[in-house]
Specification:
CBS-domain, 6 helices, elongated, about 45% helix, about 150 residues, single chain, about 15% strand, two-stranded antiparallel ribbon, three-stranded mixed sheet, alpha+beta
Length: about 150
C-alpha cells in the first residue's frame, strides 16, 4: 500500500514555510513567486503552527477588508491543521482531504517537526501514474509486447 513517504521520496521534503509574524503581503508575494497555493506557518521549534492558503486570503483578508501589509499571518492563518506522518497510507490522506475539504496536508515526523507537504495534486499524480503503469501492463498482457 502506498504511503506519504512514497510521494516525498519523489518530490522531496522541501517545504515553503514562514513564521507567524510574516505579513499577509509578504506571504502572498512568496506564494506568487513560488507558484504555490499554501505556506506552512511554523513555530520556533520548526513545528506546524498553522497553514496559510489562498482560501485564507479570500475569507480572512479580502472579505474582511484587512490591510495585507499590516496583517500578520498569526491573525488570519488556519490553526486547526490536519497533519500526517510519512508512514500514513495515501488512501487515508486522500480520505482526510475529501472529508475536510482541504488541498494541502503538512507531513510531520515523530517529534512533530515539519518533514514535508503533500497536496491533492501530488496524491492525484501518484494514483494517475500507477493507473498508467497498470494500463500498460494490461495492454501488454492482452496484446503482447510491441
Amino acid at each position: 500500500m502506498a504511503q506519504v513517504k512514497d510521494i516525498l521520496d519523489v518530490k522531496g521534503g522541501s517545504v515553503y514555510s514562514v513564521g507567524e509574524n510574516t505579513t499577509v503581503l509578504d506571504a502572498t508575494k512568496r506564494m506568487n513567486e513560488a507558484r504555490i497555493g499554501a505556506l506552512v506557518v511554523t513555530d520556533d521549534n520548526e513545528g506546524v503552527a498553522g497553514i496559510f492558503t489562498e482560501r485564507d486570503v479570500l475569507r480572512r483578508v479580502v472579505a474582511e477588508g484587512r490591510d495585507p501589509a499590516g496583517t500578520l499571518l498569526a491573525v488570519v492563518m488556519t490553526t486547526q491543521v490536519a497533519c500526517c506522518q510519512p508512514d500514513t497510507p495515501l488512501d487515508d490522506v486522500r480520505a482526510l482531504m475529501r472529508q475536510k475539504r482541504i488541498r494541502h496536508v503538512p507531513v510531520v515526523d515523530e517529534t512533530g517537526k515539519l518533514a514535508g507537504l503533500i497536496s491533492i495534486g501530488d496524491v492525484n499524480a501518484h494514483y494517475a501514474n500507477g493507473a498508467e503503469v497498470q494500463i500498460q501492463y494490461l495492454h501488454e498482457y492482452i496484446y503482447g509486447r510491441a
